[in-house]
Write a structure and sequence with these properties.
Elements (H helix, E strand, L loop, with lengths): L4 E5 L2 H9 L2 H4 L4 E5 L10 H11 L4 E5 L1 H4 L8 H6 L4 E3 L3 H10 L4 E8 L4 H13 L5 E7 L3 H8 L8 E5 H7 L5 H7 L3 E4 L3 H17 L4 E3 L11 H10 E8 L3 E10 L8 H5 L14 H5 L31 H8 L2 H8 L1
Parallel strand pairs: 1-2, 1-7, 3-4, 3-5, 5-6, 7-8, 8-9
Antiparallel strand pairs: 10-11
Helix pairs in contact: 1-15, 6-7, 7-12
């Protein structure tokens, strides 16, 4: 190919599946894959985890959260530790479960931890609309919801990253469509391909991305056409516009990014967990020695972290990237092969 092509797979599911199906091992050496900030619990800053931990320790408060979030360590412990100590933590599989719990237990304050990107935004919006329909006074919402285009702009503005193209997330794009990514081609002059998650999808996406990069074509294309359209899902986007509004948000490793987070719209502020509990968020630094922030920015790989595979493992995670099923460190640890084995042994 004549040179190295540096592509970033933005989505955590892409990162895991590229490892899981052994695709990284069969790619030409001239293709360098860099993992991006596509894990929703990984990009949560310390203070958001601490808010939920502190809330779960309050008498009469129950925090409802998805499984990955329970084990993410904050500066004051994790939700899993609070749960083991008898605190109010419930594992849920759908935002609507939190609404059902609030309706069944009116004497408790139920806090839904809203985590995810545009993929889960509509489902959280439906839960809030149902809570309002039922006039639940004990249901509250804490938003850690984020949107994907703004951090991509922040990453591409980093001159040290020097990417040749982006493998864009299929499920986020199923909601927002392909049009919000046009700035990637227009402003930064590199291509992007929206790709599915099966091995064939990812190989097709990478092959097309390589063709575009070699030919110098800066455009956004859809490989995942059976799910993604240019305009996205109008119903899902309408729900998010009704219930949420964009605001500036802090990202682990990326700092404060304008309009990158979703917060409650004025008509839904009565459900604000921050207002109901009076717990203030205080920005906190990364855990000492943890390279998770640099990994999310594409500046380091997990084996570059001195804690990786030693102090930080899936059984004893030190940072969130080792916790989540979509975390880059967890993917490297589980599927990284000889490279990781040699690092841990050293």
């Amino acid at each position: 190919m004549g040179r190295i092509f540096r592509f970033m797979e933005v989505c955590g599911t892409h990162t895991v599946n590229l490892f899981r199906f052994g695709l990284r091992k069969v790619l030409p050496r001239e293709i360098e894959l860099i993992s991006g900030p596509g894990c929703p619990v990984c990009v949560m800053p310390q203070e958001e985890v601490d808010f939920l931990v502190e809330a779960a320790r309050e008498p009469g408060v129950v925090v409802c959260a998805f499984g990955d979030l329970l084990r993410v360590p904050g500066s004051k412990g994790s939700l899993q530790e609070v749960r083991a100590q008898g605190g109010g933590v419930r594992l849920i599989y759908s935002p609507m479960e939190a609404v059902q719990i609030a309706a069944a237990e009116p004497g408790k304050k139920i806090v839904l931890a809203g985590v995810g990107f545009e993929t889960t935004g509509p489902a959280h919006a439906v839960a809030l609309l149902e809570a309002r329909r039922q006039r639940l006074k004990n249901f509250f919402f804490f938003s850690a919801l984020r949107v994907m285009p703004p951090p991509l702009r922040a990453l591409l503005s980093d001159p040290d990253l020097a990417l040749d193209g982006l493998l864009l997330p299929g499920h986020v794009s199923a909601v927002i469509g392909s049009r919000p990514y046009t700035f990637i081609a227009e402003e930064f002059g590199i291509p992007g391909v929206i790709t599915g998650f099966e091995p064939r999808d990812m190989l097709e996406g990478l092959a097309r991305l390589l063709e575009l990069a070699r030919e110098g074509q800066a455009t956004i294309e859809i490989q995942y056409k059976r799910v993604v359209t240019p305009e996205g899902n109008p119903w899902g986007k309408r729900l998010m516009r009704e219930v949420f509004r964009p605001c500036d948000g802090r990202w682990r490793g990326l700092g404060l990014i304008p309009e990158s987070k979703l917060t409650l719209a004025p008509d839904f502020e009565e459900f604000s967990a921050e207002e109901a509990l009076g717990i203030e968020l205080q920005p906190l630094p990364e855990p000492p020695g943890c390279a998770c922030g640099e990994i999310l920015r594409g500046r380091k790989r997990p084996p570059d972290c001195p804690l990786f595979g030693k102090r930080c493992t899936p059984e004893t995670p030190y940072g969130p990237c080792m916790v989540s099923s979509e975390g880059t460190c967890a993917a490297y640890f589980r599927f990284g092969g000889e490279e990781v084995t040699l690092h841990v042994a050293s």
